[in-house]
Amino acid sequence: MIEFVKPSVDYFELWPLLLVFGVACLGVVVEAFAPRAVRYITQVVLALAGLVGALVGVVLVAQDVTTYDDGAARGILAVGGTIAVDGPSLFIWGLVLALAIGGVLLFAERHLDGGMSAFAGQASAVPGTDAETAAVAANREHTEVYPLMMFAVFGMMLFPAANDLLTMFVGLEVLSLPLYLLSGLARRRRLLSQEAALKYFLLGAFSSGFFLYGAALLYGYAGSMDFARINEAVRNDVGSSSLLLIGTGLLSVGLLFKVGAVPFQAWTPDVYQGAPTPVTAFMAAGTKVAAFGAIMRLFYVALGADRWSWQPMMWIIAILSMFVGAALAITQNDIKRLLAYSSVAHTGFILTGVLGLQASDQLAPGEITSVQAVLFYLTTYGFATIGAFAVVSLVRDAGGETTAIERWAGLGKESPVVAAVFAFFLLAMAGIPLTSGFVGKLAVFSVALAAGAWPVVVAAVLASIVAAFLYIKVIKVMYFDEPVGDGPKVAYPSVLTATTIAVGAAVTLVLGVVPGPVLDLAAVAGEFIR
Amino acid sequence: MNLLSQTVRLVEEGGAAPVVSPDTGAGGVFDLLWLVIALPLLGAFLLLAVAPFLQGSLKAAADKHGHLVGTAMSTLSFVLSLVLFVALLGRGAEERQIGQHLWTWFETGSLSVGMDLLYDQLAALFLLLITGVGSLIHVYAIGYMEHDERRRRFFGYLNLFVAAMLTLILSANFVGLFLGWEGVGLASYLLIGFWQHKPSAAAAAKKAFVINRVGDIGLSLAIALMFATFGTADFAGVSERAGDASQDTLTALGLLLLLGACGKSAQVPLQAWLLDAMEGPTPVSALIHAATMVTAGVYLVVRANFIFELAPIAQTAVVVVATVTLLWGAVLGCAKDDIKKALAGSTMSQIGYMMLAAGLGPVGYPFAIFHLLTHGFFKANMFLGAGSVMHGMNDDVDMRHYGGLNKAMPVTFLTFAMGYLAIIGFPGFSGFWSKDRIIETALADNLVVGLLAVLGAGITAFYMTRLMLMTFLTEKRWAKDVHPHESPKVMTVPLMVLAALSVLGGVLLLGDWIVTWLEPVTGHAEHHEPPLPALVITLIITAVVAIGVATAWFLVGKRDVPREAPQEVSFATRAARADLYGDAINDAVVVRPGASLVGGLATFDRVGVDGVVEGGSAGIGGLSTTMRRLQNGFVRSYALSVLAGALLVVLALLAVNFA
């Protein structure tokens, strides 16, 4: 009989996490008791205040944490060793919170669609019925999206910080469930949106099953859910290695599904396309950051000693993701689907950084650690992605957003600024020098090369050529093609969306010209607590 | 200021490639080095980013006078380059490597890449060429683009190009060089496609960009490999530690750099974009696709001499590529009726000569750069001359519609003739000195390569004479409503300056000046005796050139030139007209397999995943019903693909561990 010990909660180190969770719960209360007229402003202010407060908290905690147990890492293990508040966790928390602030600003945008937000008036009304018409006429909108988003942010913070398999699973679910819901709330093209939400939910549940099964097998192998104990078991080579291998494989399915790696990418284009664009922006940036944090923690901390068995699998997945993502993106004719496939390719690039497994004690001069490279890449990717999707929400015609690429022809003439900013984000994704994407690619490639994974790097460079072609194609459409019909219209955004785009573009430029401070910050983040 | 560290240290054995160790405390006028880049960059910024936001009369003024800003920036940059050059002359040979640290681009742990500039003997010559010829071309373009309503934008792009090219040349590490490398690629893309209303121009721009990206793979992989091997990509660090790397690594580095050079310099097998790039306005062809950007590959090989010196296999590859290209380009030049394409073929061929010299090691480097400079003069001269001709002929580029223009356009004719005499290597003209030295060095190194280079000189004489005869001599074949006239002064004055340089460029070789000047950068060369006395070789080359000229005279000058290109021609002519099937080869080897791969993947995605659904949903009306069926089908097959993926992952894990 295992005795239950009440864990001590380290409130100071966890308060950014708890604040976000508290604000999410408070948001539900506001939904129940505040009158409809003031809900929008209350929720937006509450969410922003919670996120900014949590961001300040992350900075305070980061300054406070000390070296853990004489090891290479800094931080503490909180709540009975289930949550690791270490350098990488704090870096990811900060990044997720910054992206979430951008997300709230996009959610709150009401200028683009005749004074309404991008969310449905009444999600329960069947599209095309009287109930829906009535909801639209009454100018209703769902302000539940803000607490839902805060729950998702909480999950995104818990997921990469989880230090055992069960907490990780809880984080995974808490981050996913609100996102399934949010995907189905689009005001325009609701059938597409609902279809996307259901698909995302079914497939997400399916992949969670894999994760849970893998966790059970790994527990069977190591006799513990705890990452440190699993690591110990792997080092001592106890028990059946098939349990370990199959468990590792099934866990990776769950995690790779979340980042949209090939062959688990099938949901990404449909969901990215169907979900309301602000949700897509937030989800595409935030989920990937959180899930890569979790992937690194699981594979470095728990399974690091077993790297020779999972590295070849990662090689294959990385190469497949880069090529399939880049190649399929070329034939897309919808800008959101194109960005979705491009995110699949980026998953491959980030995996290239992950599989190197360069720790700080194995560095030769001029090399950086895998964690540092991946964290930096995630930063560049997160800001470019949220900015790019924010731009997508501006280009509209009578039926709402125009996401068909051929309708973007002539955007360069219609709005030189919007086209230039979008082109800039695309160039960053292509990895052109003086944008953040170049430094990010350089970082992950050099890490992989230092770890001897040169075939993956060669494949990655080839894939980035294919990808560059694709981004150039979109730029060509915007600037060189003749507009179809009236050509695209650009809706004039309020300060909310404009801020998000401006910050995204500024970060993308600054990280390209002087990436030093952020690279340093990622280096200071250091290692995971083992 | 560490005066000791800047003395040039020679690697003891073998290659004798000098180590780069710039003096960062030179002070004085050298502190203004960054301005050389900043001035044209400012011009580009003003013309492209600021001017579009001006309103009313300010905007009108910007559109009307913008070109003057662009020209002024380029000229100021030239003046500064000249001052810097004089200052450099004033220093001792050992103190001519000037470094300037602008800011640290990124630094983390021990990995550090700085925005550092390196101004040495090699960079000094390039600076003069780029800003000098660049400014002349700016002036020329004032006249050439006079009636184009987007002239301001054109000058903005030109300034952007100049700034990027100067970054490429002045960078003190390979990452900064790569930045400039991509920058010139972007500017070239924008300028080739400047007349984007022509589909051919847009297609050519895209083609140039894509083929250049292939070359960029080489350069970017080389940089990554340098970081992995040396922990740095600074010229200083790499040149110091190059000797420690293994032979295989050095060979790989050399070959990767060569791939990069091939893309930018249109060397076989990445040559196909250059002829199409002639869709751009003619000043662009002169500046980017003749005088400066396309020679970046030669610069790269010469700059990376510390790698190539230790990688003999890569050096041999350079020689082979160069020899093939110099003949390939020359053959193309013989068959083209489009005056710009004929000149483009000739550019390819002449860069082949430079590459050949660069592949021969320290003996060849100075001559590669020498030929690069003289070629910059005479080729820019001829391209601008061709532009002047087109200007007078209503933008017709077909030489079969020219003839007898020597009377109508005397200045263009005379200046073009100077360029012509220089390129065929007429004794005394600049091209004579530079090409002669390359062939001599090649003969001393390898007889076969040397003889092929002599053959190339003969073919050059043939196609250039053909071009000259068809354009300026022979009888008139003008279209009805064409009235050729001499171009305005603003266009002819640059022509005269360039013509003078084409004639006199040879003075750089007086007393072997350029060889001594570049020796601290490229290393001291052991002189090999050529198989024959130098004078005999010169005579033989001149005789071969004379044969080429005579052949052209008898085949073109003595006969009637038909206005329509004859279709019943030999296989060789047909092949040359089709760019020696360069596009067909690309198509068969790269494009079609790539397209079918993409097509296959897309088909799999559509048929394998969606197909189940689409079949079922056909004929069922009503959007919601269709959607519901779509949903069912999609998720089922998606889930199936997740399951298959899970199997793949687990099997891959098991296979690796139990195999």
Keyphrases for this structure?
heterodimer; A: 530 residues; mainly alpha; three-stranded antiparallel β-sheet; two-stranded antiparallel ribbon; 20 helices; 70% helix; 3% strand; B: 659 residues; two-stranded antiparallel sheet; 2 strands; globular
Question: Can you give a write-up of this model?
Answer:
The complex is a heterodimer of chains A (530) and B (659). Chain A is 70% helix and 3% strand. Chain A is mostly helical and 530 residues long. In chain A, strands 4-3-5 form a 3-stranded antiparallel β-sheet, with no helix packed on it. A two-stranded antiparallel sheet of chain A has the order 1-2. In chain A, strand 1 and strand 2 (83-86) form a beta hairpin. Chain A has one domain (11-525). With 659 residues, chain B is mainly α. Chain B contains 25 helices and 2 strands. Chain B has helices at residues 33-50, 56-89, 121-144, 151-170, 174-192, 199-230, 235-241, 247-264, 273-276, 282-291, 296-303, 305-308, 312-335, 339-359, 365-392, 405-408, 410-424, 430-445, 447-471, 489-504, 513-522, 534-557, 571-577, 582-617, 623-658, and strands at 98-108, 111-119. Chain B has a domain at 581-658. At the A-B interface, helix 7, helix 9, helix 12, helix 17 and helix 18 of A face strand 1, helix 5, helix 6, helix 24 and helix 25 of B.
